[in-house]
Amino acid sequence: MLVAKSNYIRKLITESKDSDGTRIDLSDIPGGPEMFEKAAKFCYGVNFEITVQNVAALHCASEFLQMTDKYCDNNLAGRTQDFLSQATLSSLSGAIVVLKSCEILLPISRDIGLVRRCVNVVGAKACKEAMFPCRSPPNWWTGELCILNIDFFSDVVASMKQRGIKPSSLASAIITYTERSLRDLVRDHSGRGVKFSDPENHERTQQRGLVESIVSLLPSEKGLFPINFLCSLLRCAVFLNTSLACKNEVEKRISAVLEHVTVDDLLIPSFTYDGERLLDLDSVRRIISGFVGKEKIKGLCSVSLQRVAKTVDSYLAEIATCLDLTVSKFNAIANLVPKSARKSEDDLYRAVDIFLKAHPSLGEMEKEKVCSSMDPLKLSCDARLHASQNKRLPVNIVLHALYYDQLKLRSGVEGKEGEVVIVPEVLATRGQVKADTTLAKENEALRSELMKMKMYVSDLQKDGGGASSSKSPLLVSNKNSKHTFFSSVSKKLGKLNPFRHGSKDTSNINEDLAGVDITKPRRRRFSIS
Q1: How many C-beta atoms surround the C-beta of residue 232 within 10 A?
Q2: Please, how many CA atoms are within 13 Å of residue 410, restricted to the half-sphere of its CB?
Q3: Inter-CA distances, 244 with 114, 207, 241, 257, Å
Q4: Which contiguous run of DSSP H or E holds residue 271?
Q5: Among residues 122, 138, 119, which one has the least CA distance to residue 130?
Q6: What local confidence, expressed as pLDDT, does residue 507 receive?
Q7: Alpha-carbon distance 249 to 243, whole Å?
Q8: Cβ atoms within 10 A of the Cβ of 382, count?
Q9: Within the chain, what is the greatest distance between any pair of CA atoms?
Q10: Which secondary-structure segment (H or E) carries 74?
Q11: DSSP for residue 50
Q12: ∠ CA(249), CA(252), CA(257), 5° rounding?
């Protein structure tokens, strides 16, 4: 019966060198002994069950044994074809299961067209589910694809692209596949002391190829993938030491949406040969540089650039405690952001202070190099106050902070973000202060002159009992000199007289100054005690 239904076995027996033809080699049959047993049962009329799990292997075995309708009607190959069409490939889940079972049946499953047939069915039904979901949640079909290996998944993605699936739906499928295929790798970057660069590590090699294949499948449209997914993918690429082209592609995508990144996203670990955990600063520097380069082309200091500047400063504060972080690497990242993007440099000052505290052995020159990335004139009032008392900072930075603080106090008031704001009220107050100061000085001078005048008059009164003949010339002389003195005082008092433009009552003025002519009092009144 086997010879009647299997052309392959018939040829083997015909071409066998054994005279009796009792021994033939069927070690290459797809599915192994189990599938040969079912094929034999079919030939002898023994019932067995064809299922979604074994139909692919049974179909491949029937094609291998040449058990087609060409050699016998209603043969095994025809039976499996009917089952595929009517049962398994009528649904998305069934088609995916059959496609999954084809993985261990290569290359014959691909040679006979079974893989291509399943891929087309899966691609078509997945596109239909993406547009008109029949289950909840709507993206349930993305989880079904996760059982496929990366080669078959890539074939399905290509099939969906040909059918015009939306890029967002395709991105959803890729994200789900990546998170499930690299679940442990995405979540664990501890290193565990494994020698990751060991070329003999087969599992590591497979994972490296998986990441590189996933990156090659990413659609080119911007904004399809969340920033945390891209950063996790970059961690995997660095973790597995993928190709430079793979890393650059992920870095370019992160750079395009860098304004949405967080500090935790930028903490990309790297590992040495013995599993020691480090930070991949080179990737971060390339990401920031790519974003800043695009912003410079626009020629404006955008809100996105200002947001990235704050993120970079916070990132520097986070990595500042790393002992292997050198001054040059710190400055290289800090100087990537243009000075105009930082309205306030308080966050950068915090990073510099943490770095100096974590590296106490730095010399004065090295400290100045670290502080060269920071502009002390852009610090807020609180930050300048802290800097003026910070013993870790170089002396010139402290002096800059103190000088500029005084300069701001003299020139105006400080705004919310540290900028100097000159307002009309400040100018008016400043002018009033100057006028009050001048007036106080003039009042002090007048008090001094009046005190001298009182002392002089008192001395004249004491000498009043002397001879009138000898006193007369003196009186004339004193009168002239006193008149001159009163004139100078009157001029100064007149400047401060608030009623010098109106009439005044001088009837109550008592002059007890001897020898002074008061017959024609002048129209002024001023009293200073």
Answers
A1: 22
A2: 6
A3: 36, 16, 8, 21
A4: strand 269-271
A5: 138
A6: 43
A7: 10
A8: 10
A9: 179
A10: none
A11: -
A12: 135
> What is the tens place of the pLDDT at every residue in 235-259?
889 888 889 999 999 999 999 988 8
Which DSSP string do the residues of 169-194 spell out, in sequence order? HHHHHHHHHHHHHTHHHHH----TT-
Asked if 8 and 41 count as a contact pair (C-beta separation under 8 A), the reply is no
pLDDT of 140-158, one tens digit each?
999 999 999 999 999 999 9
Instruction: Count CB-CB contacts under 10 A for residue 59.
Output: 28
User: What distance in Å separates the CA atoms of residue 22 and residue 82, rounded to the nearest whole number?
Assistant: 33
Using an 8 Å Cβ cutoff, are 105 and 57 in contact? yes
pTM score above 0.85 = no
Which residue, 415, 414, 417, 394, is CA-closest to 405?
Answer: 414
Residue range 6-25: mean pLDDT, rounded: 72
The band of 498, judged by pLDDT with boundaries at 50, 70 and 90, is very low
Q: What is the pLDDT of residues 182-200, one digit of tens each?
A: 886 655 444 443 444 455 5
Partnered with residue 350 across adjacent β-strands are: none
DSSP 8-state symbol, 433: H
Q: How far is CA 417 from CA 32, 338, 401, 410, 426, in A?
A: 75, 18, 16, 18, 19
With tokens 């870790």, the residue in question is 392
What confidence score (pLDDT) does residue 517 get? 46
- Ramachandran area for residue 113 (φ above 0: left; ψ -120 to 50: alpha; else beta): left
CA atoms of 390 and 402, how far apart (whole Å): 12
Cα–Cα distances (Å) from 464 to 301, 423, 451, 457, 473, in that order, read 87, 63, 21, 11, 13
- Gap between the Cα atoms of 243 and 223, Å rounded: 24
Q: How many CB atoms lie within 10 A of CB 77?
A: 24
Q: For 343, which DSSP code?
A: S
Tokens of 450: 């009046």
Cis bond before residue 394 (omega within 30° of 0): no
| Structure token pair of residue 437 | 């100061």
Q: Say if CB 231 and CB 261 are below 8 A apart.
A: yes
CB 211 within 8 A of CB 246: yes
> Concatenated DSSP letters for 371-412?
HTTS-GGG--HHHHHHHHT-TTS-HHHHHHHHHHHHHHHHH-
The beta strands (E) that lie in 376-529 are given as: 413-414, 420-421
What are the residues facing 414 on neighbouring strands? 420
Q: Can you read off the two tokens belonging to residue 109?
A: 């499953």
pLDDT digits (tens, 9 = 90+) for 379-398: 888 887 888 788 888 877 77
Give the total residue count for the chain: 529
Give the model confidence (pLDDT) of 4-14 as tens digits.
777 888 887 77
Residue owning tokens 């139909």: 55
Question: pLDDT value at position 428?
Answer: 53
Q: Report the pLDDT value the prediction gives residue 114, as an integer from 0 to 100.
A: 94
Query: How does the average pLDDT of the chain come out, rounded?
Result: 78
